[in-house]
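Input/output pair, single chain:
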Amino acid sequence: MSAPSAASAETGILVAGEEAQLAFGAALARALGGRRGIIYLRGDLGAGKTTLVRGLLRALGHRGPVRSPTYTLIEPYEDLVPPIHHLDLYRLGDPEELDYLGLRDLLGGESLLLVEWPERGAGALPPPDLEVRIGHAPGGRRIELAATSEWRPVTAALADAGR
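Output:
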C-alpha cells in the first residue's frame, strides 16, 4: 500500500447534519465495493467520525450498536464482509501499544481498518489507502478525501454521489 500523495485523487463534499453524515457513510460503504485496507478518519472532537462509521456499518448490514472505541481502542465487526475493525487511537499512550492490541494480525489484508486519530499511531501504522478529513463548515461539515491510485474509483464514486 502506498500513501495518498499530492498526485492522489482529492475531492470535497459538504454534508449538512447527522443524517447527511450517516448517508455519506453509507455512500462510502457502497463505493468501497468490498475493498480491504486502511482508511484514516481525521477531524476534531465532535466532527462526526464515528457517525460516518455508523452509516458505513449500517449500510454493510450491521444491526447492533456502533460505539466509538475511545476506551477499548478497537471495536471489531467480524460479522461483516470484509471484517471491519474500528480503531479510535485518541487515548493511545504510545504507538507501541498497538502491538499489544494485535495490530499486526489485523494488517494481514483480510479486513478493513477504520482508524480515528491515526496520528497517535504514527510509526506503527502503515500509510492509508484512503484518508477522510472532516472539518467544520458553514451549514455542516466539509469532507475531503485523498486516495492512493488504486482507491481513486472510491473517491470518484463519492464525488459523483455528492453532486
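The radius of gyration is 15 Å. The first strand starts at residue 9 and ends at 15.
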